[in-house]
Amino acid sequence: MRIGILGTGNMADALGTQWARAGHEVLIGGRSTERAAALAGRIAGGIGGRTACRAGTLREAGAFGDATLLAVPHDTVPTVLKEAGADEDSGGVLHGRVLIDCTNAIGPGFVLTTQGGPGAAARIADATGAHVVKAFNHCADSVWRLTPPAFSDGPLTAPLAVPLCGDDERALETVRTLVRDMGCVPLAAGGLDRAVYLETATAFLVGLWMNGEDPRRMLPPFAAATA
Predict the structure, then answer these.
(1) Could you check whether the bond before residue 148 is cis, i.e. omega within 30 degrees of 0?
(2) Is the torsion defined by CA of 49, 175, 192, 111 positive or negative?
(3) How far apart, in whole angstroms, are the C-alpha atoms of residue 86 and residue 88?
(4) pLDDT tens digits, one per residue of 108-126
(5) Cβ neighbours for 103, distance < 8 A, ≥ 6 positions apart
(6) Does 1 have pLDDT greater than 70?
(7) How far apart are CA 64 and CA 47, in angstroms?
């Protein structure tokens, strides 16, 4: 698969490295061509150059291949999408494309900055006309760097589940493939209208984690919860 990445930060690094390691061709697009080139070189070097990873502009990354990952701070999303050509005539370069949204609109106090209006993923879909899938936003980059992201679950080691919210089946299947290629398990979490709940849950979880609490302690085993 060919994947364009909008962003040069930690999430772009972590996910881009995983997908390049799995054999996908990756194009990094950034507002800084120097940072994009540096990240592309770091990813290629980290996997021994087994697959192609190169740098380009935001517009090139937005139009590249089978899917595009949006991995920038949420407050920069409008500017990045504009530079990627999302608001141009004839629908823009992201119109109708698979767009993975891993952004979090979390402000001080671990609350959403989108409160009182549509969620982040819905706003991105409206701005681009893309087939948006909300995914990978519920964990930090350090988790996505694990090979694979799997954790002890009693006597077993269980791969991490990745919630996916989206409306387009082709887009969802594309992202399911990328989830599995990282050693994770896709978790169907509903349509894009459910993404705001995933965004809210992530803000809640981050608040607990940052206060030294383990959210798993509040959840019973599946069998007990569904008895």
Answers:
(1) yes
(2) negative
(3) 6
(4) 999 999 988 899 999 999 9
(5) 70, 71, 72, 73, 74, 77, 120, 124, 137
(6) yes
(7) 21
What are the residues whose beta carbons fall under 8 Å from the beta carbon of 158, sequence distance 6 or more? 150, 151, 152
* Dist. CA 53–CA 215, nearest whole Å: 37
Q: What is the DSSP letter of 65?
A: B
Q: Could you read off the pLDDT of 188-217 as tens digits, one per residue? A: 999 999 999 999 999 999 999 999 999 989
| Cα atoms in the Cβ-side hemisphere of radius 13 Å centred on 136 | 31
The 10s digit of each residue's pLDDT in 18-68 is 999 999 999 999 999 999 999 999 999 988 877 789 999 999 999 998 999
| Pairing between β-strand 111-112 and β-strand 131-134 as defined by DSSP bridges | unpaired
| pLDDT at residue 91 is higher than 70 | no
Distance (Å, whole) CA 3 – CA 26: 5
